Amino acid sequence: MKHPIATFCVLAAIFAACTLSPVAAQAGDLLVKPRNPKTIYRAQDGVYEPRKLKYRVSTTAGKRTWVLRSRKTMFTGTPPSGKARKRAKRVVVTPNDARIGALAPGIYDLRLVWRAKGRGNKRVKRNVSLVVEGDAAAGLSYFTNSCSGCHDIGVNKNGPRLGGVYGRKAGTVPGFSYSDALVAYGEVWEERTLNAWLKNPQKLVPGANMYVLVTDPVDRMNLIAYLKSVSP
Ligand code: HEC
């Protein structure tokens, strides 16, 4: 057995005690909690939701200097550097307004990377989705031109009514006869799912009954902002 950890796991498994998570911490690792990916929204008026991301950073051994690096510097960590010890330290990550404000509406998947200086240069990554919301008024005019032939906010037409669609499970408007494919899809409509649906409904849900493609990402984000504005 070449790897000491693997040897340990094999031995421990014999005693049914190898309950370590797949990425078991090693001495000196930098730990960042929570693990779950987060989403931060930026509305047209520059308001962020949530305004800040909070993480807890710690090292399993000793005193280490950690540094937050984030791709394209969309976020800054406060403080930008400091000592993380055994006891977890709270890190607040703040959006960089100038950089994010210059982005076109869209969904951006970013990575926050922490680096512990010193032996081994350990890195820890956390995924953050940045949703730069579109303009609901522009979305309404796109809707009127391209969607209202089949969709209404209040009533079912050729397509299901779209009032309240944001946050609703796909294929669940009473009295509308959906394709089996869309009912089986069963996801909740939010930024990511609506964006994929509007980009290409057939690709997201093969066999669905809608064939309209909204090719421009900004148009899609505007439409999503509009649909969100007519949803509770
Ligand atoms: C030619 C008619 C037609 C047009 C135009 C059309 N749709 Fe649809 N849409 C449908 C049909 C039909 C369905 C139901 C699909 C199914 O059952 O597979 C649907 C479903 C949807 C759904 C899912 C609703 C739910 O309750 O799960 C959304 C969201 C949606 N359309 C948005 C739009 C938007 C936004 C536009 C304009 C860019 C648009 N549609 C244009 C016919 C249309």
Automatic annotation (TrEMBL):
Could you tell me which residue ranges the Cytochrome c domain spans? 134-231
Q: Which InterPro entries match?
A: Cyt_c-like_dom (IPR009056), Cyt_c-like_dom_sf (IPR036909), Cyt_c_1A/1B (IPR002327)
UniProt xrefs under PROSITE patterns: CYTC (PS51007), PROKAR_LIPOPROTEIN (PS51257)
Q: Which residues form the signal peptide?
A: 1-27
Phylogenetic placement of the source organism: Bacteria, Pseudomonadati, Pseudomonadota, Alphaproteobacteria, Hyphomicrobiales
Instruction: Give one GO molecular function term.
Output: heme binding
Organism of this sequence: Microbaculum marinisediminis
Q: What is this protein called?
A: C-type cytochrome
Sorted alphabetically, the keyword list is:
Electron transport, Heme, Iron, Metal-binding, Signal, Transport
Domain of life, per the record? Bacteria
